[in-house]
Specification:
This protein is α+β, with helices and mostly antiparallel strands and 109 residues long. The chain has one domain: Alpha-Beta Plaits. 41% of the residues lie in helices and 27% in strands. The chain is built from four helices and four strands. Strands 2-3-1-4 form a four-stranded antiparallel beta sheet, covered by helices on one side. Helix 1 runs antiparallel to helix 3.
């Protein structure tokens, strides 16, 4: 974790395919450590379970270079490789259209 100010937030909503909920939850659970150890410009990262099939990934960055590094990182590559098996709509229709980027107006630590 760095003292940089978080300026960009990203939320991605994912819907697990029926019967793939546990596998997607396990992928997201293990992803946190990978992000922490390989993405120094990702200032925060967490995954949530909204209901039995709906999950979110939430992360924050100080600038576009951190955002780009994240989407070029190991977790993004893993999610992309597994999306057709785990996520309704796969990568193209199930992940990418559900990426919401926003500007952080205020935050606390």
């Amino acid at each position: 974790m760095t003292s940089e100010k978080v300026k960009i937030a990203v939320t991605i909503r994912l819907e697990a395919k029926p019967g793939k909920e546990v596998e997607l939850a396990e992928l997201l659970t293990s992803a946190a450590q990978v992000v922490a150890s390989t993405e120094p410009k990702t200032l925060f990262w967490y995954a949530t379970k909204v209901n039995s099939r709906t999950f979110t990934i939430n992360d924050g960055f100080a600038d576009e270079t951190g955002l780009k590094a994240h989407f070029d990182g190991k977790v993004a590559a893993l999610l992309k490789s597994k999306a057709s098996d785990l996520i309704v709509g796969g990568w193209e229709q199930g992940v990418l259209p559900n990426v919401v980027q926003s500007d952080i107006l205020s935050s606390i630590k």
